[in-house]
Amino acid sequence: MHTLLPFTNVKACKKTSTPSYMAFNGIKISLEAVEIQVPRVEEKEEQQEDYSQRAQWLRAAVLGANDGLVSTASLMMGVGAVKEDTKAMILSGLAGLVAGACSMAIGEFVSVYSQVDIEVAQLKREQQNKGEGETGGRDDEEVSREGLPSPLQAAAASALAFSLGAVVPLLAAGFISSYRVRLGVVAAAATAALVVFGCVGAVLGQAPLARSCARVVVGGWAAMAVTFGLMRLFGANAL
Predict the structure, then answer these.
(1) Residue 37: how many CB atoms within 10 A of its CB?
(2) What is the dihedral of CA 72, 75, 77, 83, to 10 degrees?
(3) Residue 166: inside a domain, yes or no?
(4) I need a surface site. Which of 85, 190, 195, 207 has the fewest CB within 10 A?
(5) CB contact burial 89-110 (16+ within 10 A = b; e otherwise)
(6) Chain-centre distance of CA 38, in angstroms?
(7) Residue pair 100/71 in contact by the 8 Å Cβ criterion
(8) Does some domain include residue 21?
C-alpha cells in the first residue's frame, strides 16, 4: 500500500510563491519551500562595539570630572582651614582648576599618543609579515589609522571633564561671605556632585548603584577631611 510521504525543502534565502511537485512511483509529493530568517550577527556586533566605545568615553569623562571635583574641593577646604579669607579660598580653587586641567590634558595626550605609536608599529609589523605590496600596505595602514583615537581630542575631553568637576565647589563658595557657611556649602555641593558621578559611573559600568555611590562619596569625604585636618594641624602655625 502506497502512502503519501511529506517532503520539505528548506531554503535560507528565498521563498517560492508556488509549490512544486515530484513524482515517485506514481505518488505525487508536494515540495514546499520554507523561509528561514537568519539574524544579522555583524550588525549586532557593530552596535555592541559602538556602545562599548561610547561607554568608555563617557566613563572616562565621569572619572575626569570626579577628579576635578575632589581635588579642587579638597584644596579649597585645606586653604579654608587656615585662612578665612574668601578671596584666598577662591584663588586656590581656581589655581587648582587650571593646574589640574593642564596636567590631565598633558597626561592624556602623552598616554594616547603612546598608544597610537604602539598600534601603528603593530600594524606595520603585520603588513610586513603578510608580505603585501607597498601600495596595498599603505592603503591598509591609512585605513587602520582612521580608527585610532585622536590624542588632541582625548586631551581636550580630559581637560574639559576635569574643569566641569572643578567648577562645582568654586561656584558654591563664590557668593558666600560667611566662613563656616562657606565651608559647609562647599562640602554639601561636593557631596551632591559625588552622588551624581557615582550614579552615572555605576550605570555605565553596570555596577550596584548604592555601593558605587557610597564608594565615591566616602572617597571624596576622606580626601577633603584629610586635607582639612592636615592643613589645620600643620598650617595654622606656619601661615
Answers:
(1) 6
(2) -130
(3) yes
(4) 85
(5) bbebbbebbeebbeebbeebbe
(6) 33
(7) yes
(8) no
Look at the chain and report how many structural domains it folds into: 1
* H or E segment and range at residue 170: helix 151-173
- Residue 2 in domain: no
- Closest C-alpha to 95, from 108, 69, 76: 76
90 HSE (CA, 13 A, CB side): 12
Q: And the C-alpha cell for 19?
A: 509549490
pLDDT in tens, 57-84: 777 788 899 999 999 999 999 999 998 8
Residue type, position 4, single letter: L
Tell me whether residue 24 is in a domain.
no
3-state secondary structure at position 165: helix
The answer to whether the CB of 36 falls within 8 A of the CB of 10 is yes
Q: How do residues 90-127 score in pLDDT, each as one tens digit?
A: 999 999 999 999 999 999 999 988 988 898 888 888 88
